Amino acid sequence: MRNYKNLIPISLLFFAILWLASCNQSVVSNPSGKIDTGKTSSSTNNVIVNNSTNATDSDGDWVPDNAEKLLWTDPNNPDTDGDGQNDKIDTNPTLAENFVPSVWIDGLKIKEILVENNVDPISKKIASDHLEVSLNNTSSKEIKNLTAYYKLSDLSGSTVQSFIVPLKNFVLKANSTENIHIDIKDWLNHFRADPNSLYYLSKNPLKVDVTVNAVWYKAATLSINKDAGWAELAD
Ligand SMILES: [Ca+2]
Ligand SMILES: [Ca+2]
Ligand SMILES: [Ca+2]
Question: For 153-168, how does the pLDDT look when each residue is reduced to its tens digit (9 = 90+)?
Fold first, then answer.
């Protein structure tokens, strides 16, 4: 008859190994004391990423998501204001200087800016409020490599924020008008907005200044005021 008594210590040893393994995972800490980006290949860091007490840093810029909100920065963009400096090292990560082109040719215009009461162009239903810019090309050539720059000024406070947004892959055809959208949707002709900017988090009235640049073309500018209230709700 088989001796089952010998199996008991073996089983205990097996469970002891499992217990020790779980203990190791729970006591591991980040030796550098820095925020774990979750994008390193180190197996030790991978354990830390799985630790529920570790701060999440979705865009890997060394600023955790919860701190990005306090800084008004975008948790999914490592360079929120688009000035080339990472949010962590940028002394003012929501204030970019405008790019001024050196050559000035007429042809690029801003026809209209919407900051609220947007309407979906296909369904014709009310869309969530966002910055929408109607661009007009009055020249006989298509315009490429456009960059939008917009500034948000709090009209009942002193905060000013500004952002550079490259309009990647957007082409404004000759003698045409087309709308671009700066919001948090990943659709055609939609470009990334900072979800923690004044536009989305402040109830105060805002002045919104928009400039659109393209190489060789005179910059197009237009301004609009946004009423007080929650911007993210259709109203
Ligand atoms: Ca971050
Ligand atoms: Ca960021
Ligand atoms: Ca920056």
Answer: 999 999 999 999 999 9
Contact yes or no for 49/39 (Cβ under 8 A): no
- Length of the chain in residues, anyone? 235
Task: Place 49 in a pLDDT band, splitting at 50, 70 and 90.
Answer: very low
- Give, in words, the CATH class of 108-226: mainly beta
Q: Identify which ligand lies nearest to the alpha carbon of 35.
A: 1
Query: Cα separation of 182 and 190, whole Å?
Result: 6
Q: How far is the CA of 112 from the centre of ligand 1 (A)?
A: 33
The number of the ligand nearest the C-alpha atom of 60 reads 1
> What residues pack around ion ligand 1 (CB closer than 5 A)?
57, 59, 61, 63
The domain spans of the chain are: 108-226
The token pair that represents 33 in the structure block: 């004391």
Residue 166 makes CB contacts below 8 A (sequence gap 6+) with: 82, 146, 147, 191
Cross-strand partners of 119 = 126
Distance 66 CA to ligand 2 centre (A): 10
